[in-house]
Every structure is written in structure tokens, then in C-alpha cells.
């Protein structure tokens, strides 16, 4: 999320450009950035092709300016597993296997949410680790 100095809005930034891995998995980010007003909700989508999302583990990370990335949650076939209990009301995640899309939703956006958000596929038997 980037906070414009003169606008009462927040911009969610996800630097996912089409990225190909050795396992022919491609991540595509359709919206490079999202601008929202504070207290609104912002969905961030990651399109994954070359693998079925049914069996994939999707991890979502947030990287604040000047900080290391931190994992927010991961999602397999059930409900998301959060790294911090305090994030349970802030974030929501889902996989839509029929559309090959995974979504991270940021609720009640505040200035503290200014960050770059990443999706990652990990622990797939033949393709151990891929980022988008």
C-alpha cells in the first residue's frame, strides 16, 4: 500500500508481473496497485496458472517500506492459518480453483497497512517454492 501525501486514500501495491518458474507455473497480477480510502476493504488477487490450486499451499506476505517481508497467513484446502491471531479480523483469504485465483482481502484499511503484498506457492511435491 502506498499512501499519497495529498490524497486521503491508500494504494495497495503488488509487484507481480508475469513470472515463470521452471515448473511452468505462472503468476499474474492483474492490478499492480490498488488505491482505497481508509476504513475501506481492498481485495488483492493473484492468478496462478500451470498448477491446480486444489492441492496448492498459498502463502501471503506483507513487506512494509524498509522492513523484511513477514508472512500473514497460508491457505491450503480449508480456512486460512494466520501467523498472528491479531490478523484474523484484518485479513481474509480464499482460493477459487475454477478461476485459478487466490485472493487476500485487507479489511478496514489504515495507514499502517501501507506495504507491498506477495503471494507464494510452496510445499507442492514437484515444485517446491514459487513466488509471485
Automatic annotation (TrEMBL):
Keywords: Immunoglobulin domain, Membrane, Receptor, Transmembrane, Transmembrane helix. It holds the Pfam family V-set. It is found in: Membrane. SUPFAM superfamilies: Immunoglobulin. Transmembrane segments: none annotated. It comes from the Eukaryota. Residues 18-132 form the Ig-like domain. GO terms for cellular component: membrane. This is Ig-like domain-containing protein.
Amino acid at each position: 500500500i502506498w499512501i499519497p501525501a495529498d490524497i486521503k486514500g491508500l494504494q495497495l501495491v503488488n509487484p507481480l508481473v508475469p513470472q515463470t518458474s521452471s515448473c511452468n507455473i505462472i503468476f499474474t497480477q492483474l492490478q499492480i496497485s490498488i488505491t482505497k480510502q481508509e476504513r475501506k476493504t481492498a481485495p488483492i488477487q493473484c492468478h496462478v496458472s500451470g498448477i491446480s490450486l486444489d492441492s496448492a499451499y498459498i502463502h501471503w506476505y506483507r513487506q512494509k517500506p524498509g522492513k523484511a517481508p513477514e508472512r500473514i497467513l497460508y491457505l491450503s484446502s480449508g480456512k486460512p492459518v494466520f501467523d498472528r491471531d491479531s490478523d484474523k479480523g484484518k485479513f481474509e483469504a480464499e482460493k477459487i480453483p475454477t478461476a485459478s485465483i487466490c485472493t487476500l482481502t485487507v479489511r478496514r484499511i489504515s495507514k499502517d497497512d501501507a506495504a507491498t503484498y506477495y503471494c507464494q506457492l510452496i510445499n507442492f511435491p514437484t515444485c517446491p517454492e514459487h513466488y509471485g
